[in-house]
Amino acid sequence: MQITCFGELLIRLSAPGRSLLLQTASLDVVVGGAEANVAIGLARLGHKARLVSAVPPGPLGDGVLAAVRAGGADTAAVQRLPGRMGLYFLSVGSGQRASEIVYDRAGSSFASAPAAAFDWPALLAGQDRLHISGITPALGPNGTALALAAAEAATAAGVPVSFDGNYRARLWDAWDGNPREILTRLVAHADILFGNHQDIGLLLGTRFDGDGEDRRRDAAAAAFAAFPRLKLMASTARRTEDADRHRIAARIDARDSHAQTDEMLVSGIVDRIGTGDAFAAGVLHGLGQGDIAHAARTGLALTVLKHSLPGDASLFSQADLDAFLAGGVDVRR
Question: pTM value?
Answer without folding.
Answer: 0.95
